[in-house]
Structures are given as C-alpha cells and as structure tokens.
Amino acid sequence: MAFVRLTGVTHYEPDSAHDSYILFSGADSITRLIDMHGVVRHQWPYAGVPPRILDPALTGGRLGDLGVQLSLSGDPRGGIYANGTVGQLNWDGEQVWEWGAQAPGGAARQNHDWELLDNGNRLLLVTIPRVVPLLGPAVVGDQGLYEIAPDGSIVWEWRAGDHLDELGFSEAGWNALRETVARDPDDPWGVLEINSAKTLGPNRWHRADPGTVFQPDNILISSRKANVIALIDKTTKSIVWKLGPYFTAEAGAQHQRINAHKVPRPLDQISGQHNPHLIADGLPGAGNILVFDNQGGAGFPPAPLGIYAGSRVLEIDPSTEQIVWQYTAEDSGLPSWTFFSSFVSNAQRLPNGNTLITEGMNGRIFQVTPDGQVVWEYLSPYEGHGVAGEPEVHEPRVPGVDRLSRTRLVYRAQAVPFDWVPLGTPVAHSGGRIP
What is the pTM of this model? Predict the structure, then answer.
C-alpha cells in the first residue's frame, strides 16, 4: 500500500485567522507566494535564505520586489559557504540588484538572514573564512555582518570572532568550543552558526529612554550553536546586551520547562533558537522579543534537554528578561512532541495578535491565536534534497552520511500583506472551513 501524506491547507478558520499571502522557499529551491487556500499565486525559480517580499516603502513604491539567492558559489563545503550571489528581483523576475562577485573571496557567502535598510543599504549575514586567534591556528567559518551600499561597497563590517569573549562562555564552554573547532574546523555551518541578524527599528524602549542600549540601529543576532541572543551596538560594535548562554537554576537551567504555562516567568534555557527579533511598532506585543526556541541540541557545553522533545515560541520582555507569552503544542491540547523542529523555523507576530509559525523541519506553516488555537495550517508538498537554499545534490556531502533522503523542509515563511504585491486582495472563496 502506498503511503500518502496530507499536504496543502489542512485547516482554515476565516473568522479567526489573519488573512495574508504567505511566501516561502520549498525544498525544491523554488520560492512561492500562496494564498490562504494554498493556491500558488506567483513563483520564482530561486530559493531564498530567507526569501522576503519587500515593503514598498523601501522600494520607491514598487510592488512585489523579492530578495533571494541568485547563484551558488560552487564551494564543495556547502552550508554557509554555498551562496555565490544574492539579489533583488521585481515582480516579473527581472534583476534589480545583485551582489557577490565583488565580495571578499569572490562570493557573497550570505546565509541565514539579510535586511534592506531604510537608508537603501543592505545588511547581510555572511561567512568569513579566517583564522580566529582565540580558537586556534586553523581557518574556520567565522560569521559576520556586512552593510552593503547600493554600489556594492562594504560600508560597515562586524566579525563574530572578534567578540567571542563578550558572549559569556564559562571555562567549560571555552573548552567545549575549542574542542569542537579542533574536531571539525571546516564545519559547513560555521563556528557559532549565527542564524539571524535584524536591526531593532523604532521601539518603545528607545522612546522612553534615548540612552538605552535598544537603539533603533542596533542589531539583534542569534547564535544557534552557542544558545546566545545578543545585541550589537552599531557604533562601538560591542555586544551590549544578551540572553544566554547559561541560565540560573532558579530559571530552570537544568530542565527546559516545555510544559510550564504560567507567565510571566523568568526565561529558562533556550537551545538552538532561531530569528529572535523585536516585535515592530503597531503590532501586539511591540517592543518584546519574539523567538522560535527550537529546543534542539546546542550549547558549549551542550545544554541539558528535557526528556520529551518539543519546540516553543517565546515572547520575552527584554527589560525584565521574562517570558510574557509562549506557544507549545500543549497550548493546542496536544503532547509537546507534536510541535518540534530541532533546527530552522520562525515565528512572526500578525496584526490581529495571532502568530505565524514555521515548523521548518516538517515543512509545516501554521497560525495560532494568543490562546494557542490553530486557525490555519499548511503542509508544504514540495520535496527536494536541498537544504536552506542549497541545490539538489545526488551524492552525500556530509562525512559519515552514506545516503540522502528527501525533505519538505521550509527554512522561514513570511506573511505578506495584500497591498505589498500587485495582486490585490483575493476574492473570498465560498464556503467556510477547509477540513
């Protein structure tokens, strides 16, 4: 008997869900824009890491511009080394901007995140192969940030390896980090595997105190491997605020409290987290940090994980460092392990207070209300061997892995307002829910 997996939109409650288009790159390395019924409304033959439809306020009013990966570097290591050029396309797929050939080393090596800034420059999270003295004599995949002007010049740069001593590693942590690097200096996902970088933007903390560390231009990053969320001062380049890598016993350092529901409460051990960002002005929870806490294996030394695997989405008040809202599978009345992605994934706050969640490992994109009710769910049907924008390959690249398997992985989905693309608002479908 053939196995058939349910795909597409599996649940939709129009009266409770926030309506938008949804953008994502499938595991087949094609980026698609779908509507709430799962109908593909537009697509581009490129993947993005992540793909992102741009706010028309940043494109001179032009609708439907998209940022994606345009070419591969050819580096056999793959992972964070794979990206050759990145760029911006218009709605018709015509190239508006491309960068990478003029980058140090001749390849963008952009990975995990990027942002078009208000000044027209682009902030790229990049890989910088180099010797990091604190880690030993080998060339490693350090990660950093470039701010790129429209003409392709690098106008600002930050390198993670210059700030390792600001991340708060214990002696045991330093030992574990150096041992990890010694075992595999050519790790295709980098020393720290920084997986997001986002400027804070205008926020209530800065309005209340112009001298705060939460300056709009400061940049929030996430190191998945180190279990650190850190804020970079754009002017000094120092880390001026952070969460992790370790948590006190009172906050639950020895056990991830997946099943704890009482909020607010102190933040406990995050592990392998993705895309922490400040919820933007005008959205419910504005000024708090929203993060997908994978609860996947990570940390120097590795963080102790709970017995029952399960991910969670956390909303954190940065002034108190307390969890003020969370989502786990149990908030939907299900066992914790039914919502789990040990890597990739994302969460996005929506205008009506709902949250769009990418459970990336399983190719699942869904929307929950503040009380945990799932009101929209989509399962990607698009399979491939590629991971996070890499091409399909037919021979294993990973040492110790003797065969490849197909995946429906989705790195990070985006809810796109109807008025950001030239399609307008879709005509409502007849009928109520999709079962």
Answer: 0.94
